[in-house]
Amino acid sequence: MDIEVRIRGLMMDPATNMPIVVLKDVASEMVMPIWVGIFEANAIAIEIEKLAAPRPMTHDLTRNLIHHLNAGLEKVVITEIKGDTFHAVLCLRQADEPVVIDARPSDAIALALRADCPIFVSEQVMQSAKLSTSGPSEGPTAEQLRGWLEGLNDEDLGRYKM
């Protein structure tokens, strides 16, 4: 079973200075962090802020390609964790046929924002992610990080509130 999530915020990890996308279960207070690269975080932030680029960015191009190929992005799903790496899929529909495409979670999230489609996390990933940090192994424990993320307020999340 998949759990629908929304982006709770985009912030910098105070320990590593790496961007974190904080996903929140729409039905509970459970949160799940995903560490992403600087460029991926920028692509997500641009869409959160509804900023317009002078030319289409990669995720805009992908959204346009999907549309012009008479397909639609129905949802994205973060499907599994292998080691410390999250994996995701794009779930499209073209001519009434489902099409599933492997994707990085950061790209899937950036595309979902542009296509205004839901983001899901598999129940297995949500359970695993709440038990492990999926970030660098040194630093706070998983429980300390979980408590820190769940205790964040809008001011802590900076200008990328949703």
Structure description:
This protein is α+β, with helices and mostly antiparallel strands and 162 residues long. The chain has a single domain (2-150), classed as Bifunctional nuclease domain (Roll), CATH 3.10.690. The chain is 31% helix and 35% strand. It has helices spanning 38-48, 58-68, 105-115, 123-131, 142-150, and strands spanning 2-12, 19-25, 31-35, 71-82, 85-94, 97-103, 119-122. A 7-stranded mixed β-sheet has the order 3-2-1-7-4-5-6, with helices on both faces. A hairpin with a 2-residue loop joins strand 4 (71-82) and strand 5 (85-94). Helix 1 packs parallel to helix 3 (105-115). The radius of gyration is 16 Å and the shape is globular.
Summed up, the helix count is 5
Identify the CATH architecture: Roll
Class by helix and strand content?
alpha+beta
Major sheet size, sense and barrel closure? 7 strands, mixed
Whole-number average pLDDT?
Answer: 85
Rg calculated over all Cα atoms: 16 Å
Global outline: globular
Could you list the spans in which at least 5 consecutive residues all have pLDDT below 50? 131-141
Helix content: 25-40%
Tell me the total number of β-strands: 7
Residue share in β-strands: 25-35%
How far is the N terminus from the C terminus? 25 Å
Order of helices and strands: EEEHHEEEHEHH
| Strand arrangement in the largest pleated sheet | 3-2-1-7-4-5-6
